[in-house]
Design a protein that fits this description.
- The chain has 274 residues and is α/β, with parallel strands linked by helices.
- The chain has 2 domains: 179 residues, Rossmann fold; 82 residues, SIR2/SIRT2 'Small Domain' (2-Layer Sandwich).
- The protein is built from 9 helices and 9 strands.
- Strands 3-2-1-7-8-9 form a 6-stranded parallel beta sheet, sandwiched between helices.
- It binds nicotinamide-adenine-dinucleotide.
- Nicotinamide-adenine-dinucleotide (NAD) binds next to loops.
Length: 274
């Protein structure tokens, strides 16, 4: 599905400014949204091909309303999951993973459910998924977590509404549905991380989904430098030191080149680390 056919390219000045902002940082935290994954072929919510373009996304009420709704939920899932699972991280995901390997990134707080940060090579403990994961399925009765591939294999053999093999309970993915509160534990961890970072780098989020959008605000209020890379303006633009309205992949790939390959080393930036 085509995403944002026209490209938005950052200027050389913007790329240099972002590299200079990141170079001396020791505890960068990235806050990411659906926009970081559009270049991997996963639509965001509001852009072309996104869920809002084809009607409102499913709600918790829809899911709880009964067997028919759950059947529709699992059928959508059976058809769509293989496509999601086949997607690969893009240059923006890979740049963040490289920052982590260089010891400069203390964590990623993501609203995404696609698992692409982990696929890019992050330590999974450093990725906080505020809205859950499409790769895990939970029993609403006994709480057992199942790998999504296991459930997918069952669905392909036997389409319908899968039950928990342990207790017969109702299964759903660990993703947060509309109308459902965000789990408290990941939000608390994200806020702690935000309070202790020196740079908060927001990538591909409209920053309108609450309370997730509070996380970069907490960082900025605690004294972190705030930089945003997003195709469109966001409510936090006025608070940011740097706003780049451009595509994340090419922007972060260019910043990565400056940081790691062209010898920009303020504060002892180590070059050559892959
Ligand atoms: P959003 O759809 O509200 O906003 C995405 C933003 O990214 C938009 O402002 C858009 O202009 C920008 N964008 C799109 N492509 C970009 C690119 N290549 N480079 C830079 N910016 C780009 O997404 P959100 O803020 O994450 O909030 C919506 C909710 O959607 C979240 O709760 C998330 O859980 C869910 N969601 C996740 C996925 C995923 O896991 N990949 C996909 C769709 C929706």
């Amino acid at each position: 599905m085509e995403q944002y056919p026209e490209r938005r390219i950052a200027s050389a000045d913007q790329i240099s400014m972002l590299a200079r902002l990141l170079a001396p940082a020791r505890r960068i935290v990235a806050f990411t949204g659906a926009g970081i994954s559009t270049e991997s072929g996963i639509p965001d919510y509001r852009g072309p091909g996104g869920v809002w373009a084809s009607g409102a996304p499913p709600t918790l009420d829809d899911f709880l309303r009964g067997e028919e709704m759950r059947r529709a939920y699992w059928e959508r899932r059976r058809v769509n999951y293989p496509e999601l699972a086949s997607r690969h991280p893009n240059r923006a995901h890979r740049m963040l993973a490289r920052l982590e390997r260089a010891g400069r990134l203390s964590g990623v707080v993501t609203q995404n459910i696609d698992g692409l940060h982990q696929k890019a090579g992050h330590n999974p403990d450093r990725v906080i998924e505020l809205h859950g994961s499409a790769h895990h399925v939970r029993c609403m009765t006994c709480g057992t977590i199942w790998d999504a591939d296991v459930i997918q294999q069952r669905l392909e053999r036997d389409p319908g509404v899968p039950e928990c093999e342990r207790c017969g309970g109702v299964l759903r993915t660990t993703t947060v549905l509309f109308g459902e509160p965000m789990p408290a534990a990941p939000l608390r961890r994200a806020v702690d991380l935000a309070r202790s970072c020196d740079v908060m780098l927001v990538i591909g989020s409209s920053l309108v989904v609450q309370p997730a959008a509070q996380v970069p605000l907490v960082a900025q209020q605690a004294g972190a430098r705030l930089a945003l890379v997003n195709r469109e303006s966001t409510p936090l633009d006025p608070l940011a030191e740097l706003v780049i309205a451009a595509d994340a992949g090419p922007t972060l790939a260019a910043v990565e080149r400056l940081l790691f390959e062209n010898g920009l080393q303020p504060g002892g930036w180590q070059t050559g680390q892959k």
